[in-house]
Amino acid sequence: MEEFIKFLKERVESYAVLKNEVVSTVVKIVDSKVEAVQRIKETSYNVMVRKGRRFLVSKVYTPEQLREGLGIMDKLPESRIVPKVHELSGERRSVKEDDGILRFMSDTSSVEDFLNSRYQVHGVLSASRFKRELVTSAGFHGNESRTWFQGYMRVRNGQYSGQWAFSSPKYDPEKVKITLNKAEEYASYTERIDLGDGYYDVVLSPMVMANLMMSVSYMASGYSIFTGNSIFANRKPGDMVGSEKFTLMDRPRGEELNSWDFDDEGFPTRDKAIISNGVYETPLLNLEIAEIMGKESTGNAGWIYPRPWTLEVKEGEVSEEGLLSGNVVLLTNNWYTRFQNRADGQFSTVARDAVIVFKGGKPVGTTSRVRIADKLNNIISNVEELSKERYSIAWWDAPLPGVYPYTLIKNVHLSKA
C-alpha cells in the first residue's frame, strides 16, 4: 500500500486506493463426497485517480500496472461525472471475525457430517476472511476485517432436483443442515404435471427473491437512475412503487455478509430503506451522483456507480405453510434472469429445480421448463403476503448477500421456457 500512495502523491490531484485481501477455503462436494478442498489467497488494489475532470478507475495487482495505466491519463477526455473522495481524515478500524470460521478454514473435516442424505448431494461450502483497507488523498485511512461462511447444496433424485443456499457471518452447522434438508424436500416431489402459459399466484422462495431483489437494488443506484436504466428513473422519493406490505432495505450496518462501516470514498455507511411499505424512499448515492441530484451521499460508493451492500426484505405475518395454503405455484430456484427493457422493468427468468404446484394447499405435482415473463414493477406491486420465516442467502446466482422471506405474488405471468 505504501508504494502505491507514495507514487500517487507526486502525480495526481485526488486519489483513493482500496486494498482487498481475501483468504478462502472452498470445499467442493460431488456425489455426496468431498471432491476437493481449495485454499485461495488473492490481494488486489482498486485505484481511483483524478486530474481535473479526467479520471481513471482500475483494478491492479502491482504498482507497475498502475504506472502503465497512468500513462494514458492526459489522453482521456474530460468527464461530466468525476469521482470524489470524502473530505474526512483520520483512522478507522473495525474487526468482526468469527473463531469458528477461522477454524473451519484450516480444518474442514466436519463437512463429512453434513453429507448424510438419501439422494446424491452436490455443492460448495466456503469460508473466507476479507480484509479491506482504504487510503484517500484527504487523509482517511480505514481498515476492516470480516469473516464469511456460505454455501449451497443441490441434490438429485433421478430426473428431479432441489437446491438451497445459505450465508452467515459465523460458522453455523445448523444452517448447513437446513440447507441440505430444504434441498432434499424439494427433490422429493416427483409427480410431473403440465402448466400452461398464463397468470398465476406464485410463491417465490428466498432463493428467487435474492436473485430478483438484487436487480431491484441495482436499479436503485443513482447512476442507473441518472442514465435511465431503472424502473425508478421516472419516479421520485415519496412515490408509491410497490405493495404496502413490501419493504426493501440496504443494511451495511447489520451482521450479514458484506456489512461495512465505510464506502469506497471513505463516507460512513448507514442502514436505509430503498422501499418502505411500498413507498420509494431513496436512491443509493455516492458523492458525485448525490451532487448531480442535489442530495447527500447515502454511503454507497462505488466510484461513479453507487451500489447496494447487503439487502433485507422485511418479514410478513404468515408461516411458510400458510403461504402455500391456496392454489399457488412455488418457484424454489431460478437462473438466466434477463432484462428486455430495464426502464420498463420487463424481464424474464427461468425456473430451476423444483417448481411445485399446490391446489387447495396440497402439492399435486411439479412442472418443468417454466419462466417468469413479467415486469419487475408488477412483482413488487403485487406482493400479497410474506412469511414470518426468513433466510440469509448468497450464492453464485445471487452474489449480493441478503435476508429474505417466502413471498406470495398475485397474477404473475408464467410461460414455457
How many independent structural domains?
2
The helix content is 10-25%
Work out the strand percent: 35-45%
Low-confidence stretches: none
Biggest sheet overview: 13 strands, mixed
Rg value: 23 Å
SS-derived structural category: alpha+beta
Distance between the termini: 50 Å
Shape call: globular
Task: Give an account of the 3D structure.
With 417 residues, this protein is α+β, with helices and mostly antiparallel strands. It folds into 2 domains: 185 residues, PmbA/TldD superfamily (PmbA/TldD fold, 2-Layer Sandwich), CATH 3.30.2290.10; 229 residues, no CATH class. It is 18% helix and 43% strand. The chain is built from 9 helices and 20 strands. The strands form 2 sheets. Strands 8, 9, 10, 11, 12, 13, 14, 15, 16, 17, 18, 19 and 20 form a 13-stranded mixed β-sheet that branches. A hairpin with a 2-residue loop joins strand 19 and strand 20. It is globular and about 70 Å long. The chain starts with a helix and ends with a strand. The model has no long low-confidence stretch (mean pLDDT 95).
Task: Give the tags.
single chain; 417 residues; alpha+beta; PmbA/TldD fold; 2 domains; 13-stranded mixed beta sheet; seven-stranded mixed beta sheet; 9 helices; 18% helix; 43% strand
